[in-house]
Structure formats: C-alpha cells, structure tokens
Amino acid sequence: MQNISNEMRKSYKTIAVVPTMGYLHEGHCSLIRLAKETADFCITTLFVNPTQFAPNEDFEKYPRDFERDFNLAKTNGSDFLFNPSVEEMYPSGFSSEIKIKGITEKFEGKFRPLHFNGVATVVAKLFNATLPDFAIFGQKDYQQTLVIKQLVKDFNFPVSIVVAPTIREHDGLAMSSRNVYLSTTDRNKATILYKALNNVKEAIKKGTRKKEEIDDILKDTLLSLPEIQIDYASSALADSLNEPDYFESGQKIVLLLACKLGKTRLIDNMVITID
Ligand code: AMP
Question: Which of 59, 112, 116, 140 has the most ligand 1 atoms within 8 A of CB, as the residue to mutate?
Fold first, then answer.
C-alpha cells in the first residue's frame, strides 16, 4: 500500500483515505464520494480492528461482506480498497499502543475504556500505510473525530482531517453497520435517539441554556421507551467536551447519546451553535 501511495505522490497526486470497518452503507459511501471530490485518489480501508473491541463486544459477529463492500467502494469512486488481515496489521511481536489522554476519558471512553486506544493505534497505522493528504471521518462518531484530530496534532501527521455529516435513514435513525442487529420492533423504536436530539434543538431555540435541563430533556425523551438502557445522554462544549453548568451565546455544543435497545448499542449526536 505504501508503494502504491508513494507512486501517486511522486506524480503530485493527492490522496484521501476513508477508514472503515466495512459492511458499507450510504454513510460510508457519502465519505467515499467526498474523498473523491477532495483529492485525486481515494483509498478506502476495510479493516475490522480487533483492538478497538472489548472482549465482551461484537468483534466476532460484526457484519462482513467483502464482495458487496468492494463493489460499493468502487461504484462510489474509490480507487483502492485496502483490506489487510489482522496478522498483517498486528504480526506476532506487535508491542505498541497509542493512548490519548483527556478527551478519551469521558462519554464513549468511560463505557468502552480501551476503545480509543485501539482506534488511535489503528488509524496511525492506516495513515502510515496509505500516506494520505486528507482523511475523511463521519460526524456520526463525534468523539472519535476529536480523538483523531488530537492524534494528528500530537504526532504531527501531515494529514488534513475532514468531518462529514451524519447520513440518516428516512425516519432519522443514523445509518450504522450495527443497525442490522435491531429486531423490527426495536428498529422502529430506534428513532427515539433522533427525537431526543431534536427536542433539545427546539428547547435551545426557545431559550434553554442550562446543561442540566438539556440533559434532562435528552434522558426524559429516551426514557419514554421504558426498556431503553442509557449509557450516557449528555451535552458538552463541542471542541473540548467540557461541561459547564450553562451554555452561552456563540458557543458550539454537542449532544451525545449512547444507549442500548435490546442487545444493540446505538450512538448518535448533534452539534448546535447557540444563537
Ligand atoms: P465504521 O465502519 O462504523 O467504523 O465507520 C467508518 C467511518 O464511517 C467513520 O468515520 C464513521 O464515522 C463513518 N460513518 C458511519 N456511519 C455514518 C453515517 N451514518 N453518516 C456518516 N458517516 C458515517
């Protein structure tokens, strides 16, 4: 992969990479199309990274369909699909791990303690393999985008990070490879996440500024489904994830949700600038 990227770079061609775990949907495809608009070449990476899954999580049963992914990547404009094996990425004797402090310690990081170490490490390896000028990530994984920006800053990766909007189903559910785990009933109920985000958006329009009130709206909306299990439903400043008691005009905030419906864990978020 490095040889191919070096050849492209020798002819002054720019490269955008789209890191994915596969089982591509329209969310991924929108990133691939954006990559192709942003750079001369698009490399899509397809790697279900074992080190970002905890032992009790879904690494083994994570949905996989190489043929379909290959075709979707190609038809959406990807020039290369980089699909390394676990052994190639982590050969025996592999001994390193990148740990980013601070931003990784709350929200998703609190519930999945080693997750962002796995993400940071694999993304660093994927950057070194693909040598991109740009890397495209989805807002869907909001905290991940902050972690990657910190990684790039701290390790001086010469890569520009582009964050693309979350693509949703017609009823507002954020697209995710994991949505296939939902039963039909839970799939219908899963729209509650988007509803919670929109309820806060409306409340903020009407003048709500207190973090506690905002978080209560998120939680109360979600809990209208008694069976939902909330990991977190919270608001924070969008750039730092700090949590002041009040938000002020001009501040950009993010609403962050993670909850379980049945056995399926869903995450979603919304960024709002306070008027
Ligand atoms: P994943 O395969 O789930 O690791 O996701 C690969 C990339 O696609 C990440 O940058 C995700 O944030 C992004 N992504 C996943 N779902 C969506 C979506 N619904 N809309 C936009 N980007 C997404």
Answer: 140
Q: What average pLDDT does the segment 157-161 reach?
A: 98
C-beta of 20 in contact with ligand 1 (< 6 A): yes
pLDDT of residue 185: 96
User: Looking at domain 177-273, what is its CATH homologous superfamily?
Assistant: Pantoate-beta-alanine ligase, C-terminal domain (3.30.1300.10)
Q: Determine which one of 25, 28, 115, 170 is catalytic.
A: 28
CATH 3.40.190.10 corresponds to the domain 2-164: no
Contact 130, 123 (CB under 8 A): no
Q: What is the mean pLDDT of residues 220-230?
A: 98
Q: Which helix (H) or strand (E) holds 207?
A: none
What does the alpha-carbon distance between residue 218 and residue 193 come to, in Å, rounded to a whole number?
Answer: 8
pLDDT of residue 98: 98
Give percent of the chain above pLDDT 70: 100
pLDDT band at 209 (very low <50, low <70, confident <90, very high): very high
Does 170 participate in catalysis according to the annotation? no
For the Cβ of 174 lying below 6 angstroms from any atom of ligand 1, the answer is yes
CA–CA separation, 272 and 60 (whole Å): 36
Write down the domain spans for the chain: 2-164, 177-273
3-state secondary structure of 125: helix
Identity of the residue numbered 94:
F
Confidence band of 78 (pLDDT split at 50, 70, 90): very high
Task: With CA atoms as reference, report the closest residue to 16 among 47, 51, 44.
Answer: 44
pLDDT at 12: 96
